[in-house]
Write a structure and sequence with these properties.
The strands form four sheets. Strands 1-2 form a two-stranded antiparallel ribbon. It has a two-stranded antiparallel ribbon with strand order 3-4. A two-stranded antiparallel sheet has the order 5-6. It contains five helices and eight strands; from the N terminus they run αββββββββαααα. Helices cover about 35% and strands about 15% of the residues. The N and C termini lie far apart (about 200 Å). Among the domains are: about 55 residues, Tumor Necrosis Factor Receptor, subunit A, domain 2 (Ribbon), CATH 2.10.50; about 40 residues, Tumor Necrosis Factor Receptor, subunit A, domain 2 (Ribbon), CATH 2.10.50. By secondary structure, it is an alpha+beta fold. GO terms for molecular function: transmembrane signaling receptor activity. Keywords: Membrane, Receptor, Signal, Transmembrane, Transmembrane helix. It comes from Carassius auratus (Goldfish).
Length: about 220
């Protein structure tokens, strides 16, 4: 009877030794704890790494990341921290420097842009060029004003000259300033009659027909 009770007790102890680690592993907080040697150990804070894992009655020992290394979350990195990113590629510069709790952020210099969201490389920004044949140069405002004033003055001068020419033409006709046209050849014979000479009466009457009188 006693031996059967002892066997039952041993069975319970053996079963609990196998079940207990499983229960402990499911009870660890994934955010701040990690499982090590069937024990939930505390993770190290951002900016630190695990120097020594926890034991039965001792907590996890953490150390601060060195220069050029970082951790940005609770972690169980043992004796190491991730390297900081370097922004040393062509046309690249630092947008944010690396710290022990955050990685560096890269960007591109002026005139260049990142090829992806992580800015792994930079490319030149292509600017649209307008052909020179269709480009027009707009003169400054003061040049436009002077051009307009010059055109107005020219129009006024032309109008004044035309008015003066018309007035001179009218006065010349009224007062006889314009020379009369040369007399026609047909009237050359009649002009002979105006000469102050003593001409017989028949000749005066037949002025312009002297050729016929000579024949008679």
């Amino acid at each position: 009877m006693l031996s059967s009770k002892m066997l039952a007790l041993l069975s319970v102890l053996l079963l609990s030794s196998h079940v207990l680690p499983l229960v402990q592993s499911t009870s660890c907080d994934d955010k701040t704890e990690y499982l090590y040697d069937q024990t939930c150990c505390k993770k190290c804070k951002p900016g630190e790494y695990v120097l020594e894992n926890c034991k039965y009655q001792s907590a996890t020992q953490c150390a601060t990341c060195g220069n050029g290394f970082f951790t940005n979350d609770y972690n169980s990195y043992f004796n190491w921290c991730p390297d900081c990113r370097t922004c040393t590629k062509d046309h690249m510069t630092y947008k944010k420097n690396c710290t022990t709790t955050s990685n560096a952020v890269c960007t591109c210099v002026e005139g260049y842009r990142c090829t992806d969201s992580d800015c792994q490389a930079c490319e030149k920004i292509q600017t649209a060029t307008v052909p020179s044949a269709i480009t027009t140069t707009i003169p400054p405002t003061h040049d436009i004003m002077w051009i307009s004033v010059s055109l107005c003055c020219a129009c006024v001068c032309v109008c004044v000259l035309l008015t003066c020419f018309l007035l001179i033409s009218r006065n010349a006709r009224q007062y006889g300033w314009i020379m009369p046209a040369s007399p026609d050849k047909s009237n050359s014979g009649s002009s002979q009659c105006t000469e102050e000479e003593e001409v017989p009466m028949p000749v005066q009457e037949m002025c312009g027909k002297t050729e016929k009188l000579e024949d008679v």
